[in-house]
Every structure is written in C-alpha cells, then in structure tokens.
Amino acid sequence: MTTGTDPVRTAGGASEARPAARAGLTDLERRAAEAARERPYGEDALIVCDRLVRIFSTDGVEVQALQGLDLLVREGELTALVGASGSGKSTLLNILAGLDTPSAGSATVAGYDLLSMNAKSRLRYRRETVGFIWQRTSRNLLPYLTAAQNVALPMRLRGGPNGERRWGRGRAERARALELLDLLGMADARDRRPAQLSGGEQQRVAIAVALANNPSVVLADEPTGELDTATAEQVFAALRRANSELGTTILVVTHDDGVSSQVSRTVSIRDGRTSTETLRRTERGEGGGESTVSREYTTIDRSGRLQLPPEFTEPLSIRDRVLLELRPDHIEVRPGDEAGAETEDEGS
Ligand SMILES: Nc1ncnc2c1ncn2[C@@H]1O[C@H](COP(=O)(O)OP(=O)(O)OP(=O)(O)O)[C@@H](O)[C@H]1O
C-alpha cells in the first residue's frame, strides 16, 4: 500500500485519493481524453510516422529494423536523428525518401501517403517534394558537370506540369543555381567540377542540388560522415542557413551525438523506436545577454510506451516491472520488486 498524504492513483487503477483531489484527477483525465479526441495525431506536422514497422527477412531470419516508430516533424524544423549503428536510422530515411516501403504503420510527408503511392506519384514525390543529400559525396554530384550545372540539373529533369521537357529555361535555371550556391557560400566554386572541390565544399554544393526544386523537405543521410569536425560544422552551418533563409524542413541522420549542439532539435532512436528528444533554444537574460539552454526529454509513443534509460534503471536495479503512481502534476516510477512491498500490503 502506498503511504503519504498526497492523492495517489496507482497504475493498477486503485485510487486512494481524497474526494477533492480525486475530482482534480478526474478532471485532468477528462481534459486529456478530450484533447486526444479533438486533435488527430500529427495533423499539423509535415512528416508523420505513426507506429512504423519495417521487418527485413533474409535467409529465414527476421530483423525488426523499425518497431513501431512514432515521429512528428513540423514545417520549418531542422531536426537531427541520432542513434547507434543498427538502430534503424537509414531504414527510416529510406522510407521517407520513397525508396522503401514499411511493413506496417503509416508514414506521410507533405500530404503524400508513402504506403499507397503509385509509381507516378512516387516519381513526382521524389522530384518535387523531397531533396536528398547522401553521405558519399560522389553519390550527390555528377563528376563531369560543374557545381552550377549540377544544381541546375534537377530543375531540368523536373520538366513542366505534365512532366514534359521545358526548353529555353536555361538562363532562369542557371540564375537560381547561382543564387543557391551564393546562399551556401559556394558562389566562387560555380564553374568547378566536384574533383576540384574539397569534401565539405562538395557537400555544400550537394545541399544546393537538394534545394534546387524548392522541396518541402530535405533528407540528409550522414552528410558529414566522411568529414572532419571543423568541416562538418561548416556543412551544418550551411544546413542551418538553408533552413532559416528558405524555411525548408530538414531532417539529418547522423550517428554523431555531438550534433545536438548544431541543431535546435535532436531525436534519438534506440532499437527501432524514438527514445529521447533534446530541444535547444536561445534565451535572453535580464542583462540582455543570450544563452543557449538545452533540455533532454524522453519520448512517449502513441501507445503510452516510453523507454527508461539505463542510467536511471541500473542504479535502482529496475528490471521487469515498475510501480507507477499518478500525482496531480507528475507520475512516479518506482522499482516494482522493492523489499517489503508484499509484507506491507499484507499488513494493511
Ligand atoms: N536490406 C536489409 N536486409 C536485412 N536487414 C537489414 C537491411 N537493412 C537494414 N537491416 C537491418 O536493420 C537494422 C537497422 O539497420 P539501419 O541500417 O537502418 O541502421 P542504422 O541506424 O542506419 O545503422 P548505421 O548507422 O550503421 O547505418 C540492422 O539490424 C540492419 O542489419
């Protein structure tokens, strides 16, 4: 039995609250239920992943790369997705890129349902709605084209409203290519081929290529994986610039934990599910000075599941089960096998 003077509702549903406190809890529950009814999941988000599952079967062995992953990304956000090797980052990105389809769950990006797209809308989605930056610089740029020609190419391939080739637009395309290169600090490199650029410069040109058709979302898979720290920071600065100047929503996958100092939102994936989220924002102090505050949150999925980090569970020897207690403004999580719990119950 739980002791103490606060009103408590245990996870099993037994309520020991005094009438006034109980009314408060009932009111909280009613308001939460109303809020859940009123707002469909992810209605204001540009990327919505709802209980996404991806199972790979090779040689009779099944691997659950995504195990019911929920993720919302709102328009205009610059989000980093971090996680250990094998946590499912690339699997998720391939689904969002329209290169792979999930085994179950749902995924929508800018109104495109990624599970039910036909070949025609998939092509359109990949040409107009998403832009990509891959880890291997050679995958992003054609070696025989200059930087400006590489950026202009997606505009040429996009064609007219019905996919037809649009001739005579070369000048407008080149002007936009130069504008984008300028925005990313690469104007001087316009007439150079990839082999004449450093790895970091190639990735900045790749960002311009990804932005060429003014996509709603840019997806980047380890864009700084082959770069040293200083060069990686320049690439992140270019991504931030594209995000703030053009308002493009950007999702970057990386295994580098240090990325949370480069972006305002970092979501971490563990075992095919989102586990924690770090939000970083700039606050102005009373003296007018600015400071950066970052806070880590544990994510809670659509079914109410959350992952307790080992740094919290190990010192308390938490395993198998826990006791949950609902307080008016928080939930308590306590070891489920605490010594004496049964004796206390029996004596009450
Ligand atoms: N095509 C595939 N066939 C079989 N298993 C796969 C396939 N692709 C990924 N997996 C498995 O799914 C899990 C998640 O892989 P994924 O590549 O998404 O992880 P990741 O977080 O991107 O890792 P890394 O940082 O090493 O790229 C891994 O166990 C991987 O072995």
From TrEMBL:
One Pfam assignment? ABC_tran
* SpoVT-AbrB domain mapped to chain residues: 295-338
Sorted keywords for this record are:
ATP-binding, DNA-binding, Nucleotide-binding, Transport
Q: Where is this region: Disordered?
A: 1-24, 329-348
Q: Which SUPFAM superfamilies did the record assign?
A: P-loop containing nucleoside triphosphate hydrolases
- Record's keyword annotation contains Hydrolase: no
Concerning InterPro entries, the annotation shows: AAA+_ATPase (IPR003593), ABC_transporter-like_ATP-bd (IPR003439), ABC_transporter-like_CS (IPR017871), ABC_transpr_LolD-like (IPR015854), MacB-like_ATP-bd (IPR017911), P-loop_NTPase (IPR027417), SpoVT-AbrB_dom (IPR007159)
Known Gene3D superfamilies for this protein?
Answer: P-loop containing nucleotide triphosphate hydrolases
Instruction: Give start-end ranges for the coiled-coil region(s).
Output: none
Q: Which GO terms describe its molecular function?
A: ATP binding
Which residue range or ranges hold the ABC transporter domain? 50-296
- Does the keyword section mention ATP-binding? yes
Biased segments, Acidic residues type: 339-348
What protein does this entry describe? ABC transporter ATP-binding protein
